[in-house]
Design brief:
single chain, cell membrane, about 60% helix, ArtM/GltK/GlnP/TcyL/YhdX-like, transmembrane, 3-stranded parallel β-sheet, MetI-like fold, D-Maltodextrin-Binding Protein, domain 2, 5-stranded mixed β-sheet, signal, 19 helices, Amino acid ABC transporter substrate-binding and permease protein
Length: about 500
């Protein structure tokens, strides 16, 4: 047993060291620039790729008009002007806010633009353009609290919300005495927390605060009163380290935009788009968003189920193999996958493996969910095989059946009957767990839910609709699984 445990531990350590080596070679690749070709690559490709999180009006958000959705906002208009000046087309990749800078660092995008503040800490990882807009900092509060919270000083020792990883989060931590700062990934979640009195105020940039106040009459805003360095508090574009030629070209466009005061026009255009969204905030108006989310959720779940079962079966057979190496690999894989969060695995496949192979977000999500499911299916199948009476194997051997035939025709069919309920539970869980792929911009149901919340300024109803949709999908799947379970019980 000691030898077996040592072999398994050695296999796990080898896997971890291999992954570590994959990332340690990245800096060498990035820093060994013979010449900066960041701009030339974009011109040769004919496309500049922008990473953004379209849930931050008026900077970037989605608008639904005539049944079609598109990403609009001030940042998008600025980026369109940059693309025009460079003579290339603009391609927008949407993802969660905490992934946009990672997308630039790993080469998934050429530029990150999502109301990003160029702080000193962020400058260590990415390059920044000049600041293209400085809207200032404010707090959103409930309108009923206007008399209670008149300025920043009144927020001392209160609960302050801010988007995780943002300047607003750090400012609330350092500049409001005794404040309890609550961070969340989405501003839509924070606004809902504010309206349900989970937090007392929400730190947010002034243009976004104004957008919420104009479209939600239950909210009000107060100025932050922060005394800040303008070089760190405005919005700038982020590039991969060493993208000097690209940054220089973009800065020329920014100078032209500032000289012509185009940001004022871009903000006005964003306001018009926001009125389009708020003219009709009924969930029926956004049915196509939810329909698209259902399509992607079912697609990811169906493909992941197939590959998860195949992988799980292979791993289970490896576990019962006479080869110690195959056993060790199977055990190491299952322990490693079950010991790491699915969210981390999704990000690793998309961003980490993307260093070597540039995988699309949808494919990355399917791969990550399939690999994760395979580990759990392996344990289910292994338990099912162990549940088959050993006498069945002995009887098969006495009849002259080979071990492979015994496993295929005797053990696995009986094991399938035993594990079907647990396997069905894994299928149902997979439908729900696939929602994690929204963090890399896959337009599944959760992703679409957050877009609808940002567009309509309605916090609860889109969540309720998505919850009902998930219930319907899983309920139908459960009924189908129960039907086949009944067929198995009556089969001889």
């Amino acid at each position: 047993m000691k030898v077996k445990g040592r072999n398994i531990l050695l296999t796990i350590m080898t896997l971890c060291l291999s992954l570590l080596f994959l990332f340690t070679i990245q800096p060498t690749h990035h820093t060994a620039y013979a010449a900066d070709d960041s701009l030339q690559k974009i011109k040769d490709r004919g496309t500049i790729i922008m990473a953004t999180s379209p849930d931050y009006p008026p900077y970037e958000f989605q608008v639904s008009k005539n049944g079609k959705s598109r990403i609009v906002g001030m940042d998008v208009d600025i980026m369109k002007q940059v693309a025009k000046d460079l003579g290339v087309k603009l391609e927008i990749k949407s993802m969660s806010y905490d992934s946009v800078l990672v997308a630039v660092e790993t080469g998934k995008a050429d530029v990150a633009m999502s109301g990003i503040n160029p702080t000193a800490k962020r400058r260590q990882s990415v390059d920044f353009s000049e600041i293209y807009y400085n809207g200032g900092q404010s707090f959103l509060i409930n309108k009923t609290d206007i008399g209670k919270y008149k300025n920043k000083a009144a927020l001392a020792h209160k609960k302050i919300g801010a988007q995780t990883g943002t300047l607003q989060y750090n400012l609330a931590k350092s500049k409001i005495p005794g404040a309890t700062v609550k961070g969340m990934d989405k501003n839509t979640d924070l606004v809902l927390a504010l309206k349900t009195h989970k937090i007392d105020a929400l730190g947010i940039e002034t243009p976004s605060a104004e957008a919420y106040v104009k479209n939600d009459h239950d909210l009000a805003m107060i100025k932050s009163g922060y005394k800040l360095n303008k070089n760190e508090t405005g919005s700038a574009m982020a590039f991969r380290k060493g993208s000097g030629t690209l940054a220089a070209a973009v800065n020329k466009s920014i100078d032209k935009i500032k000289a012509k005061h185009l940001t004022t026009q871009y903000l006005a255009d964003a306001g018009k788009y926001m009125k389009v969204n708020t003219n009709n905030t009924s969930m029926i108006h956004y049915w196509n968003y939810f329909a698209k989310g259902i399509e992607y959720t079912l697609l990811i779940s169906a493909i992941s189920v197939i590959f998860g079962v195949l992988l799980g079966t292979i791993l289970a057979l490896m576990r019962f193999s006479k080869s110690k190496l195959l056993k060790a690999i199977s055990v190491a894989y299952v322990e490693f996958v079950r010991g790491t969060p699915l969210m981390v695995q999704v990000m690793f496949v998309y961003f980490g493996v993307g260093i070597i192979v540039n995988l699309p977000a949808l494919l990355s999500g399917i791969i990550a969910v399939s690999l994760n499911s395979g580990a759990y299916v392996e344990e289910i199948i292994r338990g099912g095989i162990n549940s088959v009476d050993k006498g069945q194997t002995e009887a098969s051997a006495s009849l002259g059946l080979a071990k492979s035939d015994t496993m295929r025709f005797v053990v696995l069919p009986q094991a399938l009957k035993n594990i079907w309920p647990a396997l069905g539970n894994e299928f149902v869980s997979l439908v729900k767990e696939s929602s994690i792929v929204s963090i890399i911009g896959v337009t599944d149901l959760i992703y679409q839910l957050n877009i609808v919340r940002a567009d309509t300024y309605r916090g609860v109803m889109p969540v309720f609709i998505a919850m009902c949709i998930y219930f319907v999908m899983t309920f139908i799947l459960t009924r189908v699984l129960n039907y086949f379970e009944g067929r198995m019980k009556h089969a001889r």
